[in-house]
């Protein structure tokens, strides 16, 4: 179209042509970087964290026992010298035990005397210290001068053997 000697091209038409030209060349240029971004994202790893609880169950302990409680040195006499006491401690637990005290219970019985011996006069002196017994094992300890006899002992206690009650205080080691 020619107006006053100038070529006039409708604007809409040239805009459409330019748009077609741009779109024809822009697609490949824009498409290449997009493929690179998608390829990079496909190599990413997901991470996650979490929390929860675990459980365990504790066992129970079994009481220690003693055996072979015996006076090992000297014989006991009323108001006489004290005798050493040998005690074997049995630990039936699956863990070691440390005993920190061995105390007399006050219970003493006599067997084999020459007569009646209900008042023995025998006592055990409390022993404080560290005495270890391995798991599922026994250990023997000797306590110097731990047993004595007072002058209240009856005459029938002569030649008797005494069972001395003791308590053990300790904990797992």
Lateral strand order in the biggest sheet: 3-4-8-6
Mean pLDDT: 81
CA radius of gyration: 49 Å
Count the domains. 2
Approximate strand percentage: 35-45%
* Envelope shape: rod-shaped
Which sequence of SSEs, written as H and E, runs from N to C? EEHEEEEEEE
- By DSSP, the count of extended strands is 9
Structural class by secondary-structure content: alpha+beta
Could you say what the CATH architecture of the largest domain is?
Sandwich
Which labels suit this protein?
single chain; alpha+beta; Immunoglobulin-like; four-stranded antiparallel beta sheet; three-stranded antiparallel beta sheet; 1 helix; rod-shaped
